[in-house]
Amino acid sequence: MESPAVVAEREQIRLAHDLGQLVYDRRMALGLTSSELGQRLGMSADEVEAIELGGVLPVSSDLLARLAAALDVAVDLHVVPEGRNTVAFVARAA
Question: What gap in Å lies between CA 8 and CA 82, rounded to an integer?
Fold first, then answer.
């Protein structure tokens, strides 16, 4: 049985991976390069690629807010005590 700290870290890794896939999919849908998204976020293309690969831990509310603005989406984050948290992008109302 894993310790609560290990379980929490594993959940953060999974959430970061899911977020990375969402960022990549949305960037592609908008026709943006990593550099162009990076400019919108105030970061480098390498940092964008790190996000897309799930390599940014922990996932912070600041990062989620910046991504929402840069990708023109709302971020839907569900956090539950027993784990299996979810993150999704939702089209913003016009």
Answer: 10
20 burial via Cβ count (<10 Å: 0-12, 13-18, 19+) = buried
**To which residue do tokens 């299996």 refer?**
84
Q: 3-class secondary structure for the chain?
A: CCCHHHHHHHHHHHHHHHHHHHHHHHHHHHCCCHHHHHHHHCCCHHHHHHHHCCCCCCCCHHHHHHHHHHHCEEEEEECCCCCCCEEEEEECCC
- Tens-place pLDDT, residues 16-47: 999 999 999 999 999 999 999 999 999 999 99
**Whether the predicted pLDDT of 94 surpasses 80:** no
Q: Is the pLDDT of residue 82 over 90?
A: no
